[in-house]
Amino acid sequence: MPALVGYLNLFRLDESKGGKKAMGTLILILRMWVMDFQQPKFKIEDNPAAEATSRLTRILTFLHLPVVNLWLLLCPVNLSYDWTLGSVPLVTDIGDPRNVWTGLFYSGLLALIWRSARSLISQVRL
C-alpha cells in the first residue's frame, strides 16, 4: 500500500481535492478487489464478547478491554499475535475481581479529564 501511495505521489495526485478523491477511490477499489468484493465473514471465536448473550457480560468485558491493553502497554509480558478464541476471558458478573482494575482505570481517567478541564478553564479566565 505505501508503494502505491508513493507511486501516485509521483503524479502529484495528492495536491488537489480531485487527486485525493481519485487516490481514495483507487485504494478503496483495490481493497475491495483484495477481499474479492465480499464482506468479511466473522466467527464467534473472533470476538466472543460481541456474541455474548448477556448485555451485562458484553458491557463489563468491553469496559475491561482498555484496561488489558493499558497493562500490555505498561508490561508487555503476554503479547500474542492472535487475541481470539477467548484469550481475554469474558467478565460475566459484577463480583469479578478484574472489575476493581476497571473501576480504578476509569476513575483515574475521569480524574485526569476533570483536572485538565479545570486547568483549561483557569487559563481562559486569566
UniProtKB/TrEMBL annotation:
GO terms for molecular function: mannosyltransferase activity. One of its GO terms (cellular component) is endoplasmic reticulum membrane. InterPro entries: TMTC_DUF1736, TMTC_O-mannosyltransferase. GO terms for biological process: protein O-linked glycosylation via mannose. Residues 37-109 form the DUF1736 domain. Keywords: Membrane, Repeat, TPR repeat, Transmembrane. This is Transmembrane and TPR repeat-containing protein 2-like. It comes from Elysia marginata.
